[in-house]
Design goal:
The protein is mostly helical. It has 26 helices and no strands. One of its GO terms (cellular component) is mitochondrion.
Amino acid sequence: MNLHSSGKLFSLLPQNYQVSISSTRVLASLLFSTKTPTKPLSSSDSSTLRRRIEAIRDPRASIVPVLDQWVKEGNNVDKYQLVSLVRLMKDYKRCNHALEVSEWMTGRRFFTLTTEDAAVRLELIHRVRGLEEAENYFNKLSVKLKTKYTYGAILNGCVREKSVQKAEAVMQEMREGGMATSSFPYNILIILYSKTGDLDKIAPLVKEMERNGIDQDKYTLRNLVVASVAASDISGVERILKLTEENPELGLDWKLYAMAADAYLKIGSIGTALTMLMKLEKLMAFREKKAVFSFLLSLYAKTGNKHELYRIWNSYKPSSESMETSYRCMIDSLTKLDDIEGAEKIFEEWESQCTTMYDFRVLNGLLVAYCNRGLLEKAEAAIEKAVQGRTPYASTWHLMAKGYAEQDHIPKAVEMLKRAVNVGRGWKPDPILVNTCLEYLEGHGDTEEMKEFIRMVKN
């Protein structure tokens, strides 16, 4: 990757640049959620309705009959309950159900739609039915409901679809309507231009912010780091970091250092990346380090520095709540550094603490390392010990099948794949692996076993 320091993106950040923080609300989440209710969702009626809706797990099943039945039984329902349910379904990634509640709220109960409600519905329509339907809904909104919230929602949809022309048209309407007054629309346009490669459009945007007195915030700076990385402009990254360090009112942001570290790793500047990671650690509270423990492990693993990797592990060893995820990440990190012995010790440490649920995904990380190195005997021993009194995941047997196939032990691969199919409900094996096994059975003229194998895979 060739680096240059043209400063095209960052000529707008002079050395004496001063940043002031305003009270402008810039978080995208504020534009895409309703105002926080003032009373908790605690009544027995609400929790009962909530439980009924939560019980419908199939995203294709409608929850409208549940809402209708609730009212038919003589139960009360108010807008607060419904707005809370919309938010809950969004949190559960059940956007179809969230949209149904939103539409039922105004269609069946005749509650008044606020501009915040409309913004949420716009986002949901985009996610469930696509951008064109969201645009149709937006165009039909009354003038009263076309505010920075709904404009922000449709702009975000255009950015998600990487539609530069549509996003720019929405932004122009926001300018003309006096709604481009916060950093939010500028921030997401910077994201869009970074993704589409229109990097030359970013500097004019930031200059426009400065001209209109719109403060840059940490999200602006993060997005500019992304843009500078996309432009191979490491000097731009350095300038932004210097800016934040010289302007403490911005609030030093550890995520900026994480992004910078990743940028340096991509160009092979390991020493500088480690410096960024050290600064990152100093900025993070201990609780934050615990929360993003796996993220820290993965970054240090990319440096190839085992000493630092073990330091992070020993300093912020996981709690029981996130134990499996963290152990999986550490095993994966060590195997990438070819430290199989270290990975084995970490696995044994996890296994010794595993008294209830046995997460075979932790074992899978070690099996991948064994199979990739042809250490099938070690893989066999590990899985033989693990299966005592337990049922492995389909993925565990599948890994073994691939390992055997890669070493041309096809009979064993067939056996392992059969085991995977037997325990994997709704699980689909690798078609290349299936074809390898079928070719072996066909070549040996074992017609009956071949038919049985095909039946198992189809079922």
